């Protein structure tokens, strides 16, 4: 498993998860239905983002992971999110990617004190990924996030290095 920035030539591999309703069901983004739509998402959202990486196996993208650092009063924290092609679920790939990303984020941003991840309450598998990567479940945020025409309960997870309370 390796991480690298996305390239336009990744579009066909990218299509494997952005066109899959099983992958996008519990994400903030909608399933792409055409290659043009996926290409627009790749070129306008993913490639310009400085910390949106391809999760790769043997150099081939099979998923994505991002870190969004906070600014101003929120510069002490960052948010992380990820998606993985369905056929690779359950193999520990995202857990390994998450550990790499957490390590890099704290190296790159010395002001960072915590990394957060919000996960839909229904997404038990994703919650387990975060726990295996060392994240702590802080609690359930009831009716917290409006996504895909529904208000969702979300679980807040955080990674806070060396916090004696955790």
TrEMBL record:
Organism: Acorus calamus
InterPro entries: Acyl_CoA_acyltransferase, GNAT_dom
Name of the featured protein: N-acetyltransferase domain-containing protein
Domain N-acetyltransferase: 1-161
Domain of life: Eukaryota
One function term, GO molecular function aspect: acyltransferase activity, transferring groups other than amino-acyl groups
């Amino acid at each position: 498993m390796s991480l690298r920035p996305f390239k336009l030539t990744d579009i066909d591999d990218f299509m494997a998860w952005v066109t899959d309703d099983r992958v996008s069901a519990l994400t903030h983004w909608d399933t792409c239905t055409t290659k043009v739509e996926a290409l627009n998402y790749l070129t306008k959202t993913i490639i310009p983002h400085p910390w949106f990486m391809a999760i790769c196996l043997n150099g081939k993208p099979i998923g994505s992971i991002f870190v969004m650092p906070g600014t101003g009063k929120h510069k002490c924290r960052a948010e992380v999110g990820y998606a993985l092609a369905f056929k690779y679920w359950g193999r520990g790939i995202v857990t390994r990617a998450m550990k790499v990303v957490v390590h890099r984020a704290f190296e790159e941003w010395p002001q960072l004190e915590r990394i957060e991840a919000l996960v839909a309450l229904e997404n038990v598998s994703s919650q387990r990924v975060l726990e295996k990567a060392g994240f702590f479940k802080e609690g359930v945020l009831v009716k917290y996030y409006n996504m895909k025409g529904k208000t969702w309960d979300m679980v807040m997870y955080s990674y806070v290095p060396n916090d004696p309370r955790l």
